[in-house]
Amino acid sequence: MLKSLQNIATIQPGEKLSTMGGNITRDSRPNPVTRWLNGDKRSTSLLAIHTVLDEAFVSLDPVIGNLITQVPGGLENLKETYKSDASFCNSVDAIINRVKNYVR
Length: 104
What we know:
about 100 residues; mainly alpha; about 65% helix; about 5% strand
């Protein structure tokens, strides 16, 4: 969970997320066919983000707590990657709001 949370928090504009192997990793592969063959879809990424955050929200580890505060920045960058997909961006906004409400 820690590495997945770090990858969400540090994603850069133009990067995508991969959920291959059960972990969330940053993915800059330009070939959409390769991503599709590996099962990397936006809906899968959203589900994986929710799962990681659910686990993180119950953790008492201060390192994880600190990473949670950095997640909105990474998610804003992910929105930039998919700025033409309004539905995806709305879903990411909902996750950002969930994190911000948790951090308060």
